[in-house]
Amino acid sequence: PCRTVTPDASVYSDIVGKIVGKHSDSSLPLPEFVDNTQVPSYCLNPRGEGAVRKILLCIANQFPDVSFCPALPAVVALLLHYSTDEAQCFENPCRIL
User: Of 1, 15, 10, 8, which Cα lies nearest the Cα of 58?
Assistant: First the structure.
């Protein structure tokens, strides 16, 4: 079913703290739809790799009906290079989904 409202950057800012909590970025679990695939780094530093994990968790929270999407970590990692911040990077794949 189509959504009437697509999560945007402001949604990310609201939910990231609730979802991630006090976990360190590197210890965050990956969502089930990633299917235990390795998250590509594409020359991201450790902070960027952690941001990819946070963004994926927030996407999983907003799209619980997505059950299999192993390419999404690569898409998010690439988009992070071209985004001004994590919130914008979250918004772009949400619009695709």
Answer: 15
Write the CA distances from 94 to 30, 65, 71, 76, 78, integer angstroms: 17, 13, 14, 10, 15
Please give the pLDDT value at position 1. Answer: 58
State whether the Cα torsion 31-35-85-40 is positive or negative.
positive
Number of residues that this document lists for the chain: 97
Summarised one tens digit per residue, pLDDT across range 31-46 is: 999 877 888 999 999 9
Residues 9 and 71: their CA atoms lie apart, in Å, by 21
Ordered structural domains, the chain, with CATH:
9-96 (1.10.8)
